[in-house]
């Protein structure tokens, strides 16, 4: 047993085991007691299928004397699942090796929530997650005013929602300092032009018009919306690039600093894209260049 414990510790170090923080330090609104659900899929890795206790999985910067920026990463999955490895831990490891503090958010899934909580749980978790990260800034060594958000697909919609709908607690705002939205869903309208599945899972079978407008992100942009980088592929059939284009136009119209990268090919759900042989393979380098230019 004496030999086994050091070996187990060493194995954890080698696999880059992350530190986990609960999102909520008190009661969880709209709480449920369902167990965490997950499965593994070839080429994608671990997928979360149910979450009851939201968490922040922390990846410290390498080297430790990294940047003062922190990024909360939100995987996508149509508000029904979370592509935990493909759009979460893979991205966090890249950013941590580039010197950034990276947190992957596991949030509750609207598709699994009770009807009265469906449209609230994910945004509550994202807002509270950003506030929680700001509260960890001093102990982990990053700046409270340089906490941003990155989201993929429906996770991009959640990241965008947190950007345009901040919450304040104790004089501290949850509004992120910057947003990085990767093939995001931003449109929620009567014609479901953004992504029908994400919209149905978030708003339910009988959509409330006011709630739909609340989550139609281009209509919610104002001059306080944080600087944003949008990443998309022209051939994305699942979440068409108009989602990024219309959000970009709204940012421009309100004088918000915005950058847009649209690649000719890449489709949807390309994740880190390290295996691709097309220009989309370099999108993460574009992210670090953008961050360096805006937040030195």
Strand content: 15-25%
The CATH topology assignment is Rossmann fold
Oligomer: single chain
Summed up, the helix count is 9
**Which structural class matches the secondary elements?**
alpha/beta
When the domains are counted, the total is 1
**Low-pLDDT ranges:** 1-17
Please describe what this structure looks like.
This is Esterase. This protein is of the alpha/beta class and about 300 residues long. It has a single domain (about 20-295), classed as Rossmann fold (3-Layer(aba) Sandwich), CATH 3.40.50. Helices cover about 35% and strands about 20% of the residues. The chain has helices at about 5-15, 85-95, 120-140, 155-165, 195-205, 210-215, 215-220, 240-255, 285-295, and strands at about 20, 35-40, 45-50, 55-60, 70-75, 100-105, 145-150, 170, 170-175, 180, 230-235, 260-265. The strands form three sheets. An eight-stranded mixed beta sheet has the order 1-4-6-5-7-10-11-12, with helices on both faces. Helix 3 (about 120-140) crosses helix 4.
Topology of this structure?
Blueprint (H helix, E strand, L loop, with lengths): L3 H11 L4 E4 L14 E5 L3 E6 L4 E5 L10 E5 L10 H13 L3 E6 L14 H20 L6 E6 L1 H11 L3 E2 L2 E2 L5 E4 L13 H8 L5 H6 L2 H4 L7 E6 L8 H12 L4 E6 L19 H12 L2
Parallel strand pairs: 5-6, 5-7, 7-10, 10-11, 11-12
Antiparallel strand pairs: 1-4, 2-3, 4-6, 8-9
Task: Supply database-style keywords.
alpha/beta; 296 residues; single chain; Rossmann fold
In short:
The protein has 296 residues and is an alpha/beta fold. The chain contains nine helices and twelve strands.
């Amino acid at each position: 047993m004496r030999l086994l414990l050091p070996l187990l510790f060493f194995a954890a170090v080698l696999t880059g085991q992350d530190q986990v923080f609960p999102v909520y330090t008190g009661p969880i609104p709209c709480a449920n007691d369902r167990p965490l659900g997950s499965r593994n899929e070839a080429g994608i890795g671990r997928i979360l299928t149910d979450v009851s206790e939201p968490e922040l999985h922390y990846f410290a910067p390498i080297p430790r004397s990294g940047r003062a920026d922190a990024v909360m990463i939100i995987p996508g999955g149509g508000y029904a699942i979370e592509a935990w490895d493909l759009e979460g831990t893979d991205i966090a490891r890249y950013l941590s090796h580039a010197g950034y503090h990276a947190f992957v958010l596991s949030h509750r899934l609207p598709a699994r929530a009770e009807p009265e909580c469906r449209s609230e749980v994910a945004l509550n978790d994202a807002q509270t997650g950003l506030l929680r990260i700001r509260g960890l800034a001093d102990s982990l060594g990053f700046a409270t005013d340089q906490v941003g958000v990155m989201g993929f697909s429906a996770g991009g919609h959640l990241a965008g929602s947190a950007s345009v709908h901040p919450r304040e607690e104790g004089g501290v705002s949850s509004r992120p300092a910057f947003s990085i939205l990767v093939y995001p869903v931003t449109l929620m309208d009567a014609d479901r032009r953004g992504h029908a599945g994400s919209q149905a899972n978030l708003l339910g079978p009988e959509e409330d018009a006011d709630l739909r407008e609340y989550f139609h992100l281009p209509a919610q942009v104002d001059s306080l919306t944080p600087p944003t980088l949008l990443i998309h592929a022209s051939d994305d059939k699942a979440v068409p690039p108009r989602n990024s284009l219309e959000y970009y136009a709204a940012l421009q119209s309100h004088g918000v600093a915005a950058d847009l990268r649209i690649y000719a090919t890449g489709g949807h759900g390309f994740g880190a894209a390290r295996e691709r042989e097309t220009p989309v393979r370099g999108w993460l380098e574009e992210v670090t260049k953008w961050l360096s230019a805006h937040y030195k």
